[in-house]
Amino acid sequence: DRGSLSRTKAYSTARWGRVRRSQMSKAPLCQRCLSFDLVTIATDCDHVIPHTGSALLMWDANNLQSLCRSCHSWKTREELKGTFHDFRNNVA
Description:
mainly alpha
């Protein structure tokens, strides 16, 4: 599991389904919204450090955070600018 992986294939696997369900179960609320004292149901399982094809980062449960769709889109735009955000410590 150290090699490069196809982004499309990885997200369509049963393994990703299990990893995603586990993360969303542990943190069902958007972790960025919580940092603003807002309660929003998380919809997206986000990689804190983008995996960019790295199997190690893709499957690392410690590299995941739960975000709502809006916050995930915002974070993705930030990453394109070279800014990375970790909201996991903001969980109440």
